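User: Can you predict the 3D structure for this chain?
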Amino acid sequence: EELGVLKDAVIGYLAATSFADAMLGRVLDALEASPYKDNTIIVFWSDQGFHHGEKMHWGKHTLWQRTSHVPFIWAGKGIPKNKKVETTVSLIDMYPTFIELCHLPQVENLEGVSLVSALKKPSKSKDRNVFLPSNERGSYAVINTNWRYISYFDGGEELYNVKEDPNEWDNLAADEKYRP
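Assistant: Here is the predicted structure, written as structure tokens:
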């Protein structure tokens, strides 16, 4: 804060977001004016989020919600407008979803799952555990709508009830009642 770095970082982040929004608008306007507007599926996502000092971290590479929760927006024919899916999904679900939406040949042993049923009927979507590897070998998180479990290569653990503690301040991993 003394160096004015926080303000500059936040301004830079907001500027990048604003620029991306403007460019996406240009792409969508061009699509709307094209002959392909009725047979195109649009997926908007980003890479991981960014810490701005939360939990004493700057940057992108943690297993906490701030850097693993990304925009993941789908639009196109057969996908209801303005609906929100509340269940946990993963970016690796894109390919299986495209296979089903576009009637492409099936591929065996994909790690992701098709999101078509969740996209078409968001209220009927089922939550699941999603494995999130770290860039730090041997560290990972397992997440779902209610919980985030983090295991570090050195044996450290974190467990958060993200419904009650969305900022992940209260690590419950040491509490024996959560061991099962």
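The first strand starts at residue 42 and ends at 45. The mean pLDDT is 88.
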